[in-house]
Amino acid sequence: MSPTSRKWCRILFAGPGAVIIAIVIMAGMTLWLPRGVAGIDNLVLPLVLVPLIWAGLFFHACLDPRLGRVAIVALGLFAIHGGLVAHKFLDRPVPSGEVPK
């Protein structure tokens, strides 16, 4: 890989990639965080943590000398949380045997 293409890959992982992955992580966190007493902790905490997640992804992409490690971490988080969200959307309720009127 040429130095120019490595630079652009790093820019894509640090810029729009970090934003997109942080949003997907936020959506996936609502599915694995516990609900809490009020029932909204799993919704509020990801919203509050999005800037911290974005900053972590941004600085990791900028400061890690190995671009492969940046790609593995970012795409791994994207795949795990994207899979959680996709599974939730594709989850169909089991028919109870009654026909709705």
From TrEMBL:
It comes from the Bacteria. The chain crosses the membrane at residues 12-32, 44-63, 70-90. Keywords: Membrane, Transmembrane, Transmembrane helix. The keyword Membrane applies. This is Uncharacterized protein. It comes from Sphingomonas cavernae.
